[in-house]
Amino acid sequence: DCPGKEGTGGRKRNLTLLRNKLYMGQRRRTEPVVESTTTAEDHGNLRRSQSDRTEYSQKLQEKMAPQAVSFTPATSPQGDEEEEVSRRMMARRVKIITELMQTEKDYISDLDLCIKEVIQPLRNKQIARFDVDGLFSNIELVHQLSAKLLSLLEEATTDVEPPMQVIGEVFLQIKGPLEDTYKIYCYHHDDAHTMLESYEKDEELKQHLRDCVQSLK
C-alpha cells in the first residue's frame, strides 16, 4: 500500500512539474508573440503619428491658402490708388487747359472791346495832341496773336481725348511770334504810361478818354 501511495504521490508531483514546464514553455512561446504584437502596435502608432502630421500639414496649408489668396488682392488697393491718382491728375490737367483757354478768350474779348470802343473812336476824332498809336502801342497785333493762340489751342483739344491733347506743342509753335510781339509792347509800356499821365492833366483829352471808358460800361 505504501509503495502504491508513494507511486501515486510521485505521479502527482510529476504531473505538477509537467504542468509547470508546460506553463513555462507556453509562456516562452507566447512572450515573443506578445513582444512582436507590441512592436507592431508601436509601428502602427508611428504610422498613425506620421499620418496625423501629414493631415495636420494639409489642414495647415488649407488654412494658409485663403490668407495667401487674400494677400494677392492686397496689392490691388495700391493699384487702385495709383489709378485714382492718375485719374485726378488727368482731371486737373483738363481743368487747367480749360481755364487757360477761357482766360485767353476773356483776354481777347477785352482787347476787342478796347480796339472797338476806345482806339477806333479816338482815331476817328483825329485829335492832333493825342497820339493813339503811341498810347496803345502794338495792341492790335497782340489781339491778332492772341486770337491765333486760341485757335491753335482749340484745334489741339477739340474732338481729342484728354491724354492725347498736346498743349506744349502749341506754345512751342507760337513761341517766336509771342516773344517778338510782347517785346515791342513791353518796350513801350513805360512811355505809354507817362503819356497817359500827361493826357489826364489836359481836361479836353481827359474828357475824350472818359467818354471812351464810359462806353465800355
Automatic annotation (TrEMBL):
Q: Where is the composition biased (Polar residues)?
A: 69-78
Pfam families (UniProt xref): RhoGEF (PF00621)
- Annotated segments matching region Disordered: 1-87
Tell me one GO molecular function of this protein: guanyl-nucleotide exchange factor activity
Biased composition range(s): Basic and acidic residues: 40-62
Q: What SUPFAM superfamilies has UniProt attached to this entry?
A: DBL homology domain (DH-domain)
The DH domain sits at 92-217
A GO CC term assigned to this protein in UniProt: cytoplasm
InterPro entries of this UniProt entry?
A: DBL_dom_sf (IPR035899), DH_dom (IPR000219), Dynamin-Rho_GEF (IPR051492)
What's this protein's name?
ARH38 factor
**Organism annotation:** Mohoua ochrocephala
Cite the source lineage. Eukaryota, Metazoa, Chordata, Craniata, Vertebrata
